[in-house]
Specification:
The complex is a heterodimer. By secondary structure, chain A is mostly helical. Chain A is 73% helix and 0% strand. Chain B is of the alpha+beta class. Classes of the chains: A mainly alpha, B alpha+beta. At the A-B interface, α1, α5 and α6 of A face α2, α9, β7 and β9 of B.
């Protein structure tokens, strides 16, 4: 496979995952806005931070308003991580790697682009927002479904998955990073309405509310939330799950190519040294420091994969 | 259906249904136009979803556009095709012999059949190719011959595309679309298949591999990238052949071979089907600013380490100034009279011809010698006075840059318009593969159709559409 193709697959699936995650963040923000009595602009700021688009937003806006924040994350062409920009970038990459994709995946991707572009052609009204966000999640799931149902399990598939999980791990880590203080014991005021909303924000942003309830019932303990999102290997958006998935896919490449480049050792290291403890050890280490560390390690891992598999000249 | 003097391929000149269309017409008359209109829209949806688009240069807004597809097929009988394909075979044989001669002994010039300045002063002539013999002796691996028709027996060659002819993906996708939409049509009509083209292309390219290739030759398609107008086709062909689609940045010369950067390291390529122009192929040997090519590829090529398809320098054979000499060229190399005729052509480089052209500008079509895609040409009968005056100036300034041809009464084929069948002008580009094993033309080709009433310009960049092209079995 061409290095360029591996690069294109990696980014196609990263952008696809990003589009979905951003849509989910907007959904969460909207939900909070609707269930809170007073002004929720501070909440939108932290949503922008979770999506890592705050700096760009501030560069062209004077203040955070719900309407502007939603538009920035959903449609703005000036925001390279908006849903629209992400879907367009995913498709652009898909065009580059078209020969590596099955027809069904390409058509699903192209159809997704056409549909999303259509839905987001004009400003989305509050009334249309839920259905627009729902459509985005459905369309990205459609591409993922075509990928799972029709692609060979070879290196093409491995690079696609690595892109997906790097983006996802990064996304979950960022949400935790922005909201980590809510989970700290020192500010724990169990049962207060404010904190319940905060915890729900976290769980909703990673589609984990149902899963969490299944595991832990309806009582919400911040420690459980942290454990669920960081260490739970069954939770498909947890850090441990994401890094394990990257390691497994790198392992397929190691076996397939018959060589063991540094990136494999790095993924293995992150998993063993940071994601195999119990949650108390993480709180002892410092939740914030821990998340920062994992974020930077994952970023480094991404760069090493680019080098090991010759993404660029 | 008939309109004056113009030959319609379905209804002839006199409105009598022609034989190849008999079965189709019987089917068509039994169809509900509403259903057909819905099918037409369905076809467009299909094309858009598959991404069969082309990029229009200089239009940022409409980065990707669909080429309109018309559901009425263009039908050619087995007998008509036989004659055509013999003519094409002869012409392509002559083109390859001509290219070999021009880059070696230049017998045709010595024999006085074409003027020397036509070659030496020609931008399409590549001195770097002098004395180079491409692997298998093949210069033009893929050729697209543009034909027009003026009567039942009159097929004329309008242009020989011997550099990097495009459009073959439309031949294949148009057929695929028709098969999906009207399967019943194909059980009534016995249409020769075109679907083997990608397999034949791969086989043909492999047969041209250099001797250095060991085992199964590695083939790759070289594209300028996703912003190129024909990118879809490049990806389509690579995909259909199961080979890599590479860009200049994926390639470099490693140990005297051209190699592509893969996830496992550099892998040598034996045959490069390039869809990049000569000028951009090698910044070391040609245009130094090119980022599309591979530095040093020409040196590998000259040393016999890679096959480049088509060979560099083939443009000298489809140059519009050379075109007017094609009848002589065919005769010189094959010893036979040409089966396919040329369109009468005035070479504006010749003073007498220029004088005639200037006098009759409003009747003629004037083309740039090196132009393509319908850009920079003048269609006399429809041009405004200002256009004519402007062109007259250009002609006087650089007469050698132009040729002129009469406005032909091109044949028409009906399209499915809002009011039913309506005749529109068409041309035809069959695709030809050349290898040491022989020359083969896929039965069919790309039919381009001018969608505007009376228009003679069929180029997709100028608003033309396409049709499926049927060659019937005997």
């Amino acid at each position: 496979m061409l290095g360029k193709t591996a690069n294109g697959l990696f980014w196609m699936y990263r952008y696809l995952e990003r589009a979905e995650n951003t849509a989910r963040l907007i959904e969460t923000g909207q939900r909070i806005a609707l269930t809170r009595l007073h002004d929720s602009d501070a909440e939108w700021r932290s949503i922008l931070q979770s999506a890592a688009v705050c700096e760009g937003y501030d560069a062209v806006h004077d203040s955070v308003t719900k309407e502007a924040a939603i538009d920035w994350m959903l449609r703005s062409r000036d925001n390279p991580s908006s849903v629209m920009s992400s879907v367009a970038a995913a498709r652009q990459n898909a065009r580059v790697v078209r020969t590596a994709l099955t027809h069904e995946v390409w058509e699903a991707m192209n159809g997704t682009y056409m549909r999303v572009k259509d839905r987001l052609a004009r400003k989305v009204s509050e009334r249309d927002l839920p259905s627009a966000l729902g459509a985005i999640r459905q369309r990205t799931a459609f591409v993922r479904g075509a990928t799972h149902g029709t692609m060979l399990r070879n290196d093409i598939f491995n690079f696609s998955r690595i892109g997906t999980f790097l983006e996802r791990a990064d996304n979950t880590a960022r949400i935790l990073d922005v909201k980590y203080y809510v989970l700290l014991p020192s500010v724990m005021a169990v049962g207060s309405a404010v904190d319940n909303v905060q915890w729900e924000t976290i769980l909703r942003s990673v589609s984990a509310r149902g899963g969490f309830r299944m595991e832990y019932g309806s009582s919400i303990d911040p420690r459980d939330i942290a454990r669920f999102l960081i260490l739970d290997k069954r939770m498909p958006r947890s850090l441990a799950f994401g890094v394990a998935a990257i390691r497994k896919n790198l392992n397929h490449l190691v076996a397939d190519y018959g060589s063991r480049p540094p990136s494999f050792g790095m993924a293995d290291h992150i998993e063993r040294s940071y994601l195999s403890y119990d949650i108390d050890a993480i709180f002892d280490y410092g939740l914030h420091e821990f998340i920062q560390k994992v974020l930077s390690l994952v970023e480094e891992l991404g760069r090493q994969i680019e080098i090991d598999y010759r993404f660029y000249e | 259906m008939e309109h004056e003097g113009i030959f319609d391929e379905m209804w002839g000149r006199d409105g009598v249904l022609r034989e190849p269309y008999a079965r189709f017409n019987a089917w068509f008359e039994g169809e509900d136009p509403k259903r057909l209109r819905a099918k037409q829209r369905e076809a467009e949806e299909l094309f858009r979803l598959t991404g069969i688009t082309f990029n229009v240069y200089g239009r940022a807004e409409a980065e990707e556009r669909l080429i309109p597809f018309d559901i009425i097929p263009r039908i050619i009988s087995a007998q008509e095709w036989q004659k055509l394909s013999r003519g094409i075979d002869q012409r392509v044989r002559a083109i390859n012999a001509f290219l070999h001669d021009i880059y070696h002994r230049q017998e045709i010039i010595k024999a006085g059949r074409i003027p020397e300045r036509l070659i030496s002063g020609n931008e399409a002539f590549l001195p770097q190719m002098i004395g180079v013999s491409p692997p298998g002796g093949v210069y033009t691996h893929i050729v697209g011959i543009d034909l027009v028709r003026t009567g039942p027996e009159e097929f004329l060659v309008l242009e020989d595309n011997a550099r990097t002819p495009s459009g073959v993906s439309y031949m294949l996708e148009n057929r695929e679309t028709m098969l999906q939409m009207f399967p019943e049509l194909f059980s009534h009509n016995h249409v020769q298949p075109v679907q083997n083209y990608p397999r034949d292309l791969l086989r043909s390219l492999m047969a041209c591999a250099p001797q250095t290739a060991s085992g199964k030759p590695t083939v790759a398609v070289l594209t300028p990238g996703i912003y190129n107008s024909a990118y879809f086709e490049h990806a389509f062909l690579a995909d259909q052949m199961g080979v890599e689609l590479v860009e200049g940045t994926d390639l470099r010369v490693v140990d005297g071979r051209v190699a592509m950067r893969t996830t496992r390291g550099y892998k040598p390529i034996d045959v490069l089907y390039r869809r990049v122009d000569d000028d951009f192929l090698d910044p070391l040997n040609f245009n130094p600013d090119s980022r599309l090519g591979v530095p040093g590829i020409m040196d590998v090529y000259r040393a016999g380490g890679i096959t480049i398809a088509n060979a560099p320098g083939t443009g000298i054979a489809d140059d519009k100034a050379i075109y007017s000499y094609m009848p002589d060229i065919v005769e010189f190399y094959t010893g036979e009279p040409p089966i396919l005729k040329n369109v009468p052509t005035w070479r504006c480089s010749e003073p007498e011809a220029l004088a005639y052209v200037l006098d009759h500008l409003d009747e003629l079509v004037v083309k740039e010698v090196h132009g393509s895609g319908g850009y920079g040409m003048l269609i006399g009968p429809t041009a405004t006075k200002r256009d004519l005056a402007a062109f007259r100036k250009k002609l006087k300034a650089r007469p050698g840059n132009y040729i002129a041809q009469p406005t032909l009464s091109l044949s028409t084929v009906p399209i499915f318009s809002r009011t039913g069948l309506a005749p529109r002008h068409v041309d035809l580009r069959p695709f030809v593969l050349v290898s040491p094993d022989g020359i083969s033309t896929t039965p069919g080709g790309l039919t381009r159709v001018a969608l505007k009433k009376g228009s003679l310009v069929v180029n997709s960049s100028q608003g033309g559409g396409t049709k499926d092209t049927w060659v019937l079995e005997e």
